[in-house]
Amino acid sequence: MSERRAPALRRTLTRLARSVFRIGWPRSRADRAAALLSSLVLHLHPSRVRARVLRPQTTLGLGLVGFYLFLVLTVTGLALMLYYVPHPDAAYRSMKDIEYATTFGRLIRNAHRWAAHGMVAIVFLHMCRVFFTGAYKRPREFNWVVGVALLLLTLALSFTGYLLPWDQLAFWAITVGTSIVAYAPVVGERLRYLLLGGHEIGQAALLRFYVLHCLVLPLAMGFLVAFHFWRVRKDGGLALPPGPSRRVLAWPHLLFRELLVLLLVLVVVNVAAIAFDAPLEEIADAARTPNPAKAPWYFLGLQELVHYGAVLGGVVVPAVMVLALLALPYVDTRPGGVGVWFARERRLANAVFGVIALAVVVLTVVGTFFRGPNWAWVWPWAP
Amino acid sequence: VSPKGEERRRPRGLGRRIPARLRWSFLFLSFALLATVAVAVVKERRAGWRVWQERFAELEGEQTPAKGNGDAERGLRQIWLPALDRVDRCTSCHLGIADPEMARAPQPFRTHGGTWLETHRPDRFGCTTCHGGQGEATTYRGAAHERIPFWPQPMVSRELMEARCGTCHRERQPRAARWLARGRALVKVRPAWLRGWLKNPKAYLERSRMGDFRLKPEEVEALTSFLLQPHGVPALDVVDWSRADPERGGEIFRRSRCVTCHSVNGRGGTLAPELAHVGAKVTRDWLYSWIRDPRRLQPKTLMPRFRFADDEVRDLAAYLERDFSEPRGQDADDSLPEPALAPEGRHIFERRGCYSCHELEGFPTLPRIGPKLTGIGDRVLEPAPLLARGIVPSLPNWIFTKVSHPDDVLPGARMPTFGFTPDEAAAVTVALMSQRARQTPAAWTTHDPVLPPYEPQGRFGALVRRYRCLSCHRIRGTGGTLSTVLLDRIGSQLRRDYIERFVQNPIGVRVSLPVRMPHLNIAPEEARVLADYLSTVMVDDSLEVEVPRDPATVARGRELFDRHGCIGCHIAGEHGGYVGPELNGSGSRLKAGWTVAWLMDPERWKPGTLQPDYRLSRADAEALAAYTLSLPARRAKAVQ
Questions:
Q1: Residue B120, Cβ neighbours under 10 Å: how many?
Q2: Helix, strand or coil for residue B486?
Q3: What is the rounded distance in angstroms from the CA atom of residue A86 to the CA atom of residue A96?
Q4: Per residue in A34-43, is it b (16+ CB within 10 Å) or e — as a string?
Q5: Distance of CA B180 to the CA centre of its chain
Q6: Alpha-helical runs (H) found in chain A
Q7: What count of CB pairs under 8 Å joins A to B?
């Protein structure tokens, strides 16, 4: 009897699997190519990639890491949404509940926090990689523009999420951040009003930031990321130096490496979440300004500049930087040096970009570690 | 599919194989991921509170094996108090607080000390309401047993516990909170300040609560000049002093029992100013006008208008001037200050915020000069001044330093020093620490129900205002607390005729009591009005019941009287103690229904009374009342 049932069961399971995956486990070369083509997720990959793509030093996997962090953030963020209450009277308490009473709550919040910070850094580094390998050149100009938009979205996501814990850190970082926004000429004050839903950070601002953080920005991010990937493929895959290159099947070579990177990201995020607790300061108090009140760390470069001149740091520098980044591929149209790190013929461009990137890093480090009360210079190791 | 299996099945010649290095990396990373997940799970399962609950179960098993290991009760526990916006999870670890068997258990399991949990049930008050700390936390550190960053209120130390009492016990002093009561009394403002200040307060009166503003001599002069300007004070009466008789004034002073409210050299009442040197402070003309009609000079004064004849007032004022003006500082300059200094004095008056405590006619009503004290118990302090003096920068230390030495916290402070001893400063600190930023909801605070202020009208009202009954007595929540006799149901307690006699000639029924009603010289007609009103309006119908007075009941009452040893405190017949009122003739004084109710539950009618509660049944109380009220008055022997 069992002999008769076994094949029947197997047939049913196979049918079930087929109904889900459309084709079976690919065993032949053709099957594997077909698997990539016929899968919604996998078809963003070409069926065959050049062997050089697989080498870690080609891209350092930064874009992929950024994407994985986004996935981690989506999953942990959804979990947090089950407990978080976006109202000034309840937000802080719900954070405390997540920290102390929710099973794995603290771990998930830590993971979300560190993954978010990590994503900002990784996306920035990804941009640097793309620049230093000249990967924004024809025909990839527009994908660079999309990338810039993704960078801004990442910052916006991190910034809107910063307010949600409703502690002193959140409240004053957003106060400083939105006052930088207000430095913009003509529209600055209105923009700030629109962002906060009022003149001060309160219930309206919290709800706005919550909706932006949990709905609007992630959706935009999802669409743009998909578009970004699609354009990578349509623009001829990763930027590599011209010349012959052996091609290998994306399945298994590329997929396996992507899986490795995913594992690595998860391990690092887990370790960080276990080892370090995300900060949660006192409950937000509009009457008590910490000194210094600091913006989120990725805006501290700007805040440092605001210290020298409000319009300079709040308007001129960020506007010029964003515009320059957007215009870059259409200004620098010389074809040379694509796919090569620090190509000789791009020495000047790389030097200029390198100095600017370094300046951003230095200003951020200074703003983060070297600024004390009244934005005076302090040594981080001073008591 | 294991790497090996795939390798076997994989057709050859399909490009390079995945390098072994990467396969090992895969294996390693997979294990690493599993390991991190395992660590996270272990961390969650071995959370502090879970471990404590296991240990508690073991402990319980040892002590009372019948209880088993208590597995059913495990899990995070919390007390949710929505009205207080509080979640206390303390009981997740402090599992034995209500279990008397855990009295000797180690912390965190030990039984809560005292009977506090009976009066402050944890399910209604939680834990952090009294103890402070972070109730949401489920770790030792997170609960802020000690000071932690980002949680401003760590658990309250033993010395500061009473501050938490005061957060809810706002008006009535909790009996056990002595520091709180002391501190509150010290921050209370008294009218003696201004007068004391005028005459150089410390030299004039040791107990003056007027602060030391550390004024320079020229500032003193200017301020004196300003204050001695006429500020719309009514004109004084014109008196012929040639026939004044200070000796008679002294008699009047003693007979009227002025010391019920006033003190003389620190002995006597505390309701009204010290009189020891009053003659050196104010003129006899002012005294005359004042005693004759206090309300004319100060509309809000507590002082009653005694029914004195004008010559009695004159003699009294003369007596006060003669006997109460011991010359101090003979060399003191008694000349009038230069009027030109007045504007400068006004400036000082404003700058030092004198108007915060003192009223001055024609002076604008400005907000108090000092910052609000509401919420000071949650204030975040500036640690630098304390650190500079090597003091641990905590809020209590900050307040303590500020009230002891204002200049230490803020150099050049306008705040005066009050000469607090360290103990007094500590008490003030406790009282101030009870001022929390977030007000306890009304249902959790203990203060008397907010009633509309009681303003009696008509002839009765006029008498109450004239004799300032409410300076000492209370009716419907309005009035003073000097007298322990509540007037709300006095008509059910005392017989009408007794009331009428008493207000005319207030002879104390308790000879041991230092505070006695002053002799106000109330006229017979007035006494009749008061007695009629009090015995028809100020009554409690539940007390107006008949009590059997038959001989059998009286006999039983006598038996009870002897059994309970009433005579130890009360005089009955020829003997007895002096703690309670004499009972001879009490039948002409007390009403029977009241006496029964009083004997059954004295604490209910007079909290803190010395009368013991014998938990008498109604029948017993009636018998006892019948006996005591039947005792005849002793003849012709005044108690006084």
A1: 16
A2: strand
A3: 14
A4: bbbeeeeebe
A5: 7
A6: 2-21, 29-38, 56-59, 62-81, 91-100, 105-132, 141-163, 168-181, 188-196, 203-211, 217-234, 255-275, 300-308, 310-311, 317-331, 347-369
A7: 84
Whole-structure pTM value? 0.66
Residue with tokens 């200029």: A352
B40 CB within 8 Å of a chain A CB: yes
- For A246, residues 6+ apart whose C-beta sits below 8 A from its C-beta are A50, A51
Whether residue A266 and residue B33 make contact (CB cut-off 8 A), yes or no, is yes
**CA-to-CA distance for A37 and A27, rounded, in angstroms?**
15
Could you report the per-residue pLDDT of B599-629, keeping only the tens digit for each? 988 888 887 788 888 888 888 999 999 998 8
**b/e map A136-164, b = 16+ CB within 10 Å:** bbeebeebbbbbbbbbebbbbbbbbbbbb
Inform me whether the C-beta atom of residue B86 falls under 8 Å from chain A C-beta atoms.
no
Do B491 and B538 touch, CB atoms closer than 8 A?
A: yes
CB contact under 8 A, B18 and A93: no
Looking up tokens 């002891």 gives B404
Q: What is the distance between the alpha carbons of residues B105 and B94, in angstroms, rounded to a whole number?
A: 11
**Residue B235's pLDDT is what?**
65
| Residue B620 burial (C-beta neighbours within 10 Å; 0-12, 13-18, 19+) | buried
Q: Is B20 on the interface with A (CB under 8 A)?
A: no
Q: Is the CB of residue A133 less than 8 Å from the CB of residue A345?
A: no
Q: Half-sphere exposure of residue B259, counting CA atoms within 13 Å on the CB side?
A: 14
Q: Locate A300 and state its tokens.
A: 């501290």
Which chain B residue is nearest to residue A33, measuring alpha carbons? B14
Whether B441 contacts B126, CB under 8 Å: no
Residue of chain B whose Cα is closest to the Cα of A95: B136
Average confidence score pLDDT of chain A: 90
Nearest to A252 among B9, B18, B78 (CB): B18
CA distance B212 to B200: 10
Rounded CA separation B407/A111 (Å) = 49
Rounded CA-CA distance B398/B410 in Å is 11
**Which residues in chain B are closer than 8 Å to A288, comparing Cβ atoms?**
380
A349 touches A128 (CB < 8 A)? no
Please state the separation of Cα A246 from the chain's center in Å.
32
Chain B interface, best mutation among A93, A171, A267, A291, by max B CB count within 10 A? A267
Give chain B's end-to-end CA distance (angstroms, integer). Answer: 109
Average pLDDT, chain B: 79
Chain A residues near residue B37 by CB distance under 8 angstroms: 270
Partners of A374 on chain B (C-beta within 8 Å) are: none
How much is the average pLDDT of B230-235? 58
Cα–chain center distance at B464: 26
Does the predicted interface ipTM exceed a cut of 0.90? Answer: no
List all residues 6 or more positions away from B279 whose beta carbon is below 8 Å from its beta carbon.
B287, B320, B321, B322, B323, B324, B325
Q: Do A270 and B138 touch (CB under 8 A)?
A: no
3-state secondary structure of B450: coil
What is B388-425 written as a DSSP string? HTT----HHHHHHHHHH-HHHHSTT--PPB----HHHH
Contacts with B44 from chain A: Cβ below 8 Å: 103-104, 107
Predicted pLDDT at A328: 92
Q: What is the pLDDT of residues A278-310, one digit of tens each?
A: 999 989 988 888 888 888 899 898 888 888 888
Question: Does residue A121 have a pLDDT over 60?
Answer: yes
